[in-house]
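Quick start: load a record and inspect it. Here is DedA family protein:
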Amino acid sequence: MEQVLALAGLFSVAFLAATILPAQSEAAFIALQALGYPAVLLVVVAGLGNTLGAVVNWIIGRGVDRYRERRWFPVSQAALDRASRWYSNWGRWSLLLSWAPLVGDALTVAAGALREPFWSFLFLVAVAKTCRYIILAMAVAEVTP
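Running the structure step on this input writes:
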């Protein structure tokens, strides 16, 4: 039961980290790996949570015209404009930066606003976000005994 709760917590914080709420999943990931949880399992759980959180942003982006003026909207107009320009220049491949702080969330909202097809969005974001956790797991494995 303890393992299920720990993994549910990691999933939740990874999900929230990809949405409008400020959260950092790396600390939870590192702590669980240091406690001996299998890195592959942590990568799958965190990658899935973070990817699904980005899907929420894509959905919000699809409704950008309806929600842009709302206080809870996750991305400022300036950030959305910047991400839209970046997205227009680089296209769907810019989603490989969806893991990056500051620009990643805006890119996923912009992808929805610019009507990126769901399946290509999901594939590229899943690759980017999962690779981030793979690199994190490898780094933690290097420094932990």
